[in-house]
């Protein structure tokens, strides 16, 4: 018996069989590996050996026994015949409360120089399915964002998913920083996907600050990172948010931007041989967008157990050429629970945040506002709409005062509403005061 026990102990100490293959071709960002037939799966991790160091990669396609892999970092030193070790199992994360205040990359590795991350007891899949639709809780009560234009005209509720649609250079990232600093939540999970490298420290130090960072986890994959890592960073952002949601927290998930995620998925799809479809985007782009965005929202409402928290999602969309009907923007707008449009024309007039309140929609209206506040919102929209229709004629002098009482009222009131919507990025607003100020404007008070 003692010999059997010692033999069993010896077997337990042995390293399990390691399956490996060899690199047979490198085609741009795609690396082809032979020898993994029957073992490699879509999503499996592969370690490529080279003289310049190991390169981590992921299997994205299979073709007649050849595994198509894409690397998470530059494949420097990879040569034909390089060894490719197949990792056992699927990769995952072990988030914990110790991740608050930390900055990680798309693979969940710390990049802030503060040492290793405390690991939680449960491994969580990076790419997970959302809670079943039949068991999800409903969207909760309204929360204040601290941004006057949103709180008045496109209010946000717990568990809602809102898109921020804008072209480049019109204040999208600045608006996101205001929302990160002031929106009510327990935990903020912020994904900076494919953005400028220089902006990372500016966002963390200037926009979040020490107090904001203390309640946040920041996931970073800059524009110079490989496409696979940029896509992985978006999945990691939602995986970390899901961990805190399951802990019962009210989570604010900010992602800048969904467009960069779609571009990364397009690069991966084209490298894997997918045909380009709408404006060069591959079919998997439009399949992955709802899989990503649906992970945000309310948690499951299971009777007899502790309620899950919610993930309130704010996702920026960089519209190509200021065309708000381009494919990614159009697809995302149909998935989310509302959209906020930021326009270049308003930014050029110097009104920030440059939110076009007439084109912005929150699908939780009108139920998320009281009857009185909703009446004020609708009245203000009517005045702004009338002013927009007649603005050009008034500026050209083609409209004669007194011709229409409705137009005369809009000419007097609309500029004051526009002035109310002007907000400095460091000045927080409060909804009760904002609705009181809007009521005073509509009543004609000075």
From TrEMBL:
Segments of this protein annotated with the region Disordered: 114-139
Q: Which reaction does it catalyse?
A: ATP + H2O + cellular proteinSide 1 = ADP + phosphate + cellular proteinSide 2
Question: Which SUPFAM superfamilies does the record match to this protein?
Answer: P-loop containing nucleoside triphosphate hydrolases
Where it sits in the cell: the answer is: Cytoplasm
- The UniProt record lists the EC number as 7.1.2.2
Q: Tell me the domain of life.
A: Bacteria
Q: What family name appears in the similarity comment?
A: Belongs to the ATPase alpha/beta chains family.
Q: What exactly does this protein do?
A: Probable catalytic subunit of a protein translocase for flagellum-specific export, or a proton translocase involved in local circuits at the flagellum.
Q: What is this protein called?
A: Flagellum-specific ATP synthase
* Organism listed in the record: Novosphingobium barchaimii LL02
The upper taxonomy is: Bacteria, Pseudomonadati, Pseudomonadota, Alphaproteobacteria, Sphingomonadales
């Amino acid at each position: 018996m003692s010999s059997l026990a010692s033999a069993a102990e010896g077997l337990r100490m042995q390293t399990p069989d390691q399956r490996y293959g060899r690199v047979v071709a490198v085609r741009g960002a795609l690396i082809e590996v032979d020898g993994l037939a029957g073992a490699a799966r879509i999503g499996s991790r592969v370690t490529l050996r080279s003289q310049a160091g190991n390169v981590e990669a992921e299997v994205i396609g299979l073709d007649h026994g050849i595994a198509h892999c894409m690397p998470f970092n530059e494949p420097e030193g990879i040569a034909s015949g390089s060894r490719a070790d197949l990792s056992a199992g699927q990769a995952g994360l072990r988030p914990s409360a110790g991740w608050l205040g930390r900055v990680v990359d798309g693979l969940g590795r710390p990049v802030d120089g503060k040492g290793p991350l405390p690991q939680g007891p449960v491994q969580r899949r990076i790419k997970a399915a959302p809670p079943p639709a039949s068991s999800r809780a409903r969207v909760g009560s309204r929360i204040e964002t601290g941004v006057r234009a949103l709180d008045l005209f496109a209010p946000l509720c717990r568990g809602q998913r809102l898109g921020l649609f804008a072209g480049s250079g019109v204040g999208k990232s600045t608006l996101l920083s205001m929302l990160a600093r002031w929106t009510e939540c327990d935990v903020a999970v912020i994904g900076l996907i494919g953005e400028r490298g220089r902006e990372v420290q500016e966002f963390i130090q200037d926009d979040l600050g020490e107090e904001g960072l203390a309640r946040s986890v920041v996931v970073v994959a800059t524009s110079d990172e490989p496409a696979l890592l940029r896509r992985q960073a978006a999945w990691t952002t939602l995986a970390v948010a899901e961990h805190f949601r399951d802990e019962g927290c009210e989570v604010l998930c900010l992602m800048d931007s969904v467009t960069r995620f779609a571009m990364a998925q397009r690069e991966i799809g084209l490298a894997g041989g997918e045909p380009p479809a709408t404006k060069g985007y591959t079919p998997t782009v439009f399949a992955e967008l709802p899989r990503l965005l649906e992970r945000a929202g309310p948690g499951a409402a299971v009777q007899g157990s502790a309620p899950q928290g919610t993930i309130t999602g704010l996702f920026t969309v960089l519209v190509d050429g200021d065309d708000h009907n381009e494919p990614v923007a159009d697809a995302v707008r149909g998935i989310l629970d509302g959209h906020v449009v930021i326009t270049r024309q308003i930014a050029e007039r110097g009104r920030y945040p440059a939110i076009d309140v007439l084109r912005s929609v929150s699908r939780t209206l009108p139920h998320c506002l009281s009857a009185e506040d909703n009446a004020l919102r609708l009245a203000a929209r009517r005045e702004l709409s009338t002013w927009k229709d007649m603005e050009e004629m008034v500026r050209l002098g083609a409209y004669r005062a007194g011709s229409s009482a409705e137009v005369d009222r809009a000419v007097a009131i609309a500029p004051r509403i526009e002035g109310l919507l002007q907000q400095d990025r460091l000045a927080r607003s409060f909804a009760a005061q904002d609705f009181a100020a809007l009521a005073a404007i509509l009543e004609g008070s000075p």
